[in-house]
Structure formats: structure tokens, C-alpha cells
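Session log. Operator J.P. requested a structure for one protein chain; no other inputs attached. Running the standard single-chain path with C-alpha cell output.
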Amino acid sequence: MRTREFLSKLEHDRILSAIREAESKTSGEIRVFIQRGKLNSDPLIVAQKKFQRLGMYKTRERNAVLIFVAPRAHKFAVVGDQAIHEKCGEEFWRRVVDAMRVHFQNEKFSHALIEAVNEVGKVLAAHFPRTSANANELSDEIVES
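Structure written below.
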């Protein structure tokens, strides 16, 4: 699927609302990244590189999560920073990806992203609850590149 077509099917406002709602309960940060063009390598490796380039490792508690989607390649990945990964483990990320896959196969793109944001948000809130001192460290906007 062409990236432009994928983006036209996304309900940006609902996704942003889900991110803001999830982040209102945690000190964690969630970002969605849409990769334009082709993807010739493992989406997890590309997602990890994007995580670094976006400076997501710079959050105070090392609890940021990136949801990476390459629509043209029909690939995606979810990457969590060190502190959140230590809390939830590899099995959690696998479950999130598996649930996203089912929705993507049914062309429910927004639903896939919103459900992933909600699941990640629950885990972040359980391990990194919001306090009055928490600030929004990263933009909530969907990143496209």
C-alpha cells in the first residue's frame, strides 16, 4: 500500500487522543512513526535506529515507546526504551505486534495503532505512574519521514 493511501485512511485525531489519554496516566512517552517509501531491512532494526535519531532515549526515566509502521513494505515494529523493556519483557512487545498484525490484515489501521497505544499506555501507567512533576518530554504528533 502506498504511504499516502495509508495516511489518508488514518484517523489522526483519534490516534493523537489515544496517545494523550495514555500519557495522562504515566510519565512514559509514546510516539507513532510512519516510514515513507520502501523499507529494505528488518523493521525492528530500522525502528531502533529511528528511536535513537528521534532522541527518544533521552527521556528522564528511559520509558519511551516507538510504534513504527512502514505501510509500503507492510511491516511494523514496536520498540521500548531500556526501563520499560526491563519491566514488561519481550513477550509483551510480541503480543502488541501480533494484535496489530490482525488489525492491519483487516485494513483497520487506526484501530491497530489505537489499540497498541492503549496497551502500551496501560503497561507504562502500571510501572511509571504520572506524578505532578512529570512533563510531556516528546511531541505527541504522528511523525512521518
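Operator note: Residues 82-105 form the longest helix (24 residues).
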